[in-house]
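fyi for ur records
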Amino acid sequence: MSPETPPGPAPPANAASFDPVALERLRELDPDGRHGVLPRVLTAFEISLSRLMVQLAAELEGGSISVVSHVAHTLKSSSASVGAVVLSQACADVERRLRSGEAGSLEADIQRILLAGEGALSTVRAMLRT
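which gave:
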């Protein structure tokens, strides 16, 4: 944070799972916070993540590899951009496994992304409340 940037509210305890550098890059887009860039980006991420998690949960029984791969790919990038490193890494791992055809369980892949997604949602919601 630069000396001119007023300190924002303290991040919630579970924000530790988010990359502070990624969050700082977003804050730098709107240093004084007048345009609400960070809350708008986090809100858009929350909405998108919620929608994609519903789509992913629907794939738990007899899921489509192409749907799961698409969701993993989409979430990998968007979660990295807001600093949700656990979710981004889970998505990257699942996407890599599915694209390479490695043996594994599609249900376990879906569960891994859903679990990481729930953690990211919880953190984003806590950040938006502060």
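The CA atoms of residues 35 and 127 lie 17 Å apart. thats all i got for now
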